[in-house]
Amino acid sequence: MRHLMSPLDFSVEELERLLDLANDIENHRDKYAHACDGKKLATLFYEPSTRTRLSFEAAMLNLGGSVLGFSSADSSSAAKGESVADTIRVISCYADIAAMRHPKEGAPLVAALHSGIPVINAGDGGHQHPTQTLTDLLTIRSLKGRLGGLTIGLCGDLKFGRTVHSLINALVRYENVRFVLISPEELRVPDYVREDVLRKSGHEFTEVTRLEDAIPELDILYMTRVQRERFFNEEDYVRMKDFYILDKEKMRLAGPEMMVLHPLPRVNEISVEVDSDPRAAYFKQAQYGVYVRMALILTLLEVNVC
Ligand code: NCD
Asked: Which residues are identified as catalytic?
C-alpha cells in the first residue's frame, strides 16, 4: 500500500506517468467517470481549506466515487482528545483512501503508519504540501511544455510556505532549473531547504529582496501569501503582509512568456488587475488541481482505466 507524504515519494518516471494520466483525464473526462464507482474518499481536515479539500472531493466525485469527512478539528473527535492514530484506524473501516491536512508537521505520516488505507498528505503545518506540488508541476508542464531548463522565482513567505518547500524539493530533480528566492530577510527559506535541498542539488539559486529586480529574468513567478496562522505575533505579520504586491506596473517588467502561479488563497500579493493578463495562470492552476488529484487517487488505488 502506498501513501503520499512528500513529492519525492514518486520517482521522476512515476511522476511523469502521473502527469500524463492527468493530461489524459483532462482530455477524456468521460472515460474516467466510473473508474472509482463504489469507492470512498475520506477528507480529514484539521485546518481550513477551500481548494485542496473541495478539489479532492470533486476529483473523487468525477471518478464516480463518494466522499465523507470533516472540515475542521472542532467538528471531529480531535476536539474530545482523540489521537490521529486512532482516528485513521477507524476511518480505515469506512473509506478506501484518505486525504489529511493538519497544523502539525508529520501528523499525516503518523496517520500513514497506523492506516489500513492509502493516506495523502494534504498539507502538514509549514512542512510539505505534495498535492499542491503535483498541481504546480502539471500546470508548468502543460503550459510551458517542460519541467527542466526554467528560471523560477518564488516570492513571498518562503519560510512558512509549505507549497514552496515541496515545489523546491520536486524541481531540483530536473535539469537546469534556476531558483530566484524573493523574500524579506525574515521570511527566507528554512536552512534545511537552503542547505540540504538547494545547495546539495548543485542548482543555481539566489536570494533577493526586490521583486522588481528579479522579474525580468523569470520564466515562472510563483507568488505566495504571508502565512498569518504560522506567525508567533500579529505585529510581525502586519509588518510583512503587504511586502509584495504584484501589479500591472511590475508585470510590465516581465517577459511576454512569463507565467504567474499562486497556490491560492491570495490576500493582497497579486492585485486583481493582473487577473486579466494572459500570463496570469493561477486560476487555470486550480483547475489542474482536480485532474492531478483524480490521477493520484487512481494511482494510489491502483485502478487502471483502458
Ligand atoms: C496553500 C496551503 O494550504 O498551504 N493553499 C492551498 O492548498 N492551495 C497555500 C496557502 O494557504 O497559502
From this structure: 51-52, 80, 101, 129
pTM over 0.85: yes
What is the reported pLDDT for 306?
A: 84
Q: For a ligand 1 pocket test, name from 47, 121, 132 the mutation site with the most ligand atoms within 8 angstroms of its C-beta.
A: 132
Do 146 and 271 belong to one domain?
A: yes
Task: Looking at the structure, tell me whether residues 155 and 262 fall in a common domain.
Answer: yes
157 lies in the same domain as 27:
no
pLDDT digits (tens, 9 = 90+) for 89-144: 999 999 999 999 999 999 999 999 999 999 999 999 999 999 999 999 999 999 99
C-alpha cell recorded at residue 130: 505534495
Task: Give the H or E element holding residue 95.
Answer: none
| Atom number in ligand 1 closest to CA 163 | 4
Q: Is residue 28 part of a domain?
A: yes
Question: 129: Cβ below 6 Å to ligand 1?
Answer: yes
What CATH number should be reported for the domain holding residue 135?
A: 3.40.50.1370
Please tell me the distance between residue 292's alpha carbon and the centre of ligand 1 in angstroms: 16
Contact 135, 288 (CB under 8 A): yes
Cα→Cα distances 180→36, 77, 150, 196, 207, Å: 41, 43, 11, 17, 6
